[in-house]
Amino acid sequence: MVKLTIVIPAYNAEGFILECLDSVTSQTFEDWACIIVDDGSTDGTLRLLKEYSDHDSRFTIKHISNSGSAKYPIDLGITLSSTPWIVVIGCDDYLEESFLQTLVDRQLSTGADVVTAIMQSVDIFGKTLTWQCPTKSFDFDHCVSGKQALKLTLGDWIIPGNGALIAKKLYSKRKEIHNFMNADEFDFRQNLLNAEKVSFSKAVYYYRQHPNSITKKVSVKLFDSIFVNEHLTDLVIENYGLDSVEAMLILKQSSHDLFAKRALLFKVRRAIGEDQFTKKRKEIYLRFKMLKSRPFSGSGLAEKIIFYDWGMFSGAAWIYQNIKNVIGSRML
Questions:
Q1: Cys-Cys with 298: which of 126, 189, 248, 303 at CB 3.0–4.6 Å?
Q2: Count of CB atoms situated within 10 Å of the CB of 21
Q3: Taking residues 271-296, what's their average pLDDT?
Q4: Of 187, 224, 159, 214, nearest to 77 (Cα)?
Q5: 227 HSE (CA, 13 A, CB side)
């Protein structure tokens, strides 16, 4: 029986998908199957996938109409899988040769429900960049409960979700949310919370950063994080309590993200049109009211001033965005 399924959501990745697939077939651990869900690509991605799978029966290709985010393709791939373990990787990314073997060995030695990897950033040419998660000082030898692991993703990502080995049974315990951009990050956190034990490995996952990534393009989907953070806030407060350190972390994270989205809205107003601008401004305002009603102990003086009222909040966001525009133009 095949031990694990690699699920790859793919969209307009013709420039990188072959490197991704080559890194899968080069794995020293061979007991795997791979399901790739093409999310309505409009370039040559689907053709490349079909050609690749014609020469390797371990690959299954599923083509769907564009769903707008990675969540639905990932969920579909998991549903189609028949193995007890799942690994999700991005179509732009790639793995070191011992990646799967390192994950499996760590799971066998710890009995964990989730085993995380090292997420190493690279540029479009595969050159290693400085950002890495976890950092080199992280203690990879210890194990924690799922509840403890979730805390390591609040505020800043101390551990990554990309490339984690996850017991398939955890996916059935999730609360379903809408197909938001970055909803897969919320799902990973739910998997952590439902895990009895989480361990960490030094399996290296190469995360490619490039300007054509769907998360970098101007789109109203960029504002989906408002709703994902709302779900995450509810999840954290439900499991840790409103007065907990964890609640403070997620409320602070949500407030910073909301401020960034209010600033971004000024920048993309012309690109998204007046109707969408008005709609997103209202959504941000409603979220602002909710956060303002939940004061948290970790807020500093600047946050208290910015969140004093909507006019102060919007004005500060406008100033912030214009400063960014000036700095950006000087760097060009």
A1: 248
A2: 23
A3: 88
A4: 187
A5: 16
Lookup: tokens for 248:
């403070």
Distance CA 54, CA 47 (A): 11
Q: Which of 326 and 20 is assigned the larger pLDDT?
A: 20
Separation of alpha carbons 145 and 148, rounded Å? 5
Nearest to 283 by CA among 297, 300, 264: 264
CA angle 279, 291, 188 (to 5 degrees): 85
Cα distance between residue 88 and residue 77, in whole Å? 9
Sequence-distant (6+) residues with CB within 8 A of 156 are: none
Average pLDDT over residues 36-60: 96
Helix (H) or strand (E) holding 35: strand 32-39
Which residues, listed in sequence order, are joined to residue 35 by a DSSP beta bridge?
7, 60
Q: What's residue 296's pLDDT? A: 57
Rounded CA-CA distance 96/94 in Å is 7
pTM: 0.91
Over residues 230-261, the pLDDT tens digits come to 999 999 999 999 889 999 899 888 998 999 99
**Averaged pLDDT, 126-137:** 94
- Beta carbons within 10 angstroms of residue 301's beta carbon: 7
Q: Is residue 117 within 8 Å of residue 164, measured between CB atoms?
A: yes
The pLDDT-based confidence of 13 (bands split at 50, 70, 90) is very high
CA distances from 78 to 74, 104, 169 (A): 6, 18, 11
Q: Which residues of 123-134 are buried (b: 16+ CB within 10 A; e: fewer)?
A: eeeeeeeeebbb
Name the amino acid, one letter, at 8: I
Which one is predicted more confidently, 219 or 303? Answer: 219
Output the pLDDT for position 11. 96
Taking CA 181 as the corner, what is the angle to CA 152 and CA 86, rounded to the nearest 5 degrees?
60
Q: Name the amino acid, one letter, at 3.
A: K
Q: 222 versus 300: which is more confidently predicted?
A: 222
- Rg (Cα) of the chain, in Å, rounded? 21
CB 190 within 8 A of CB 75: no
